[in-house]
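Before the break, one more example. Copy the sequence into your notebook; we will annotate it together after we see the structure.
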Amino acid sequence: QVQLVESGGGLVQPGGSLRLSCAASGSIVRINVMGWYRQAPGKQRELVAAITRGGSLNYADSVKGRVTISRDNAKNTVYLQINSLKLEDTAVYYCNAGVITTPLSPYDRDFWGQGTQVTVSS
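Here is what the structure looks like once it is written out:
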C-alpha cells in the first residue's frame, strides 16, 4: 500500500503564509498527478492545486496568484505554498496522489493523506 503524510498546517493570521508538505511512501512504482484538496466545514472537498509528474500545473481560480504547488519526484513529495492567507482558506487540506503500484501497469490508484488543518484567524 501507499501512505501519504501531510505536515505544515497550523494557525495563521490573515495575510500570513504556510507551506504544506506531503510525503508518499510504500509500494510506489511511479506517481503521476499529485494534488492538494481542501474541505471547509459544511462544504464539499475541492481541488486547490495539482501538478503532473512532468510539471504541468492546475490551480483553482480562488487561489490563483496566492498558491504555488511543486514536487520533488526523487522524494515522492509534493508541496503547497500558500501566501496572503484569507479567512476563507480555513479548511482541512488533503494530499492526493495517483500512484502506479504494480510494475508494467499503466493504471494508477488514488491515495489520500489524513489531512492537515489550516486555520486562518486573527
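The chain is about 0% helix and 55% strand. The mean pLDDT is 96. Try to locate both features in your own notes.
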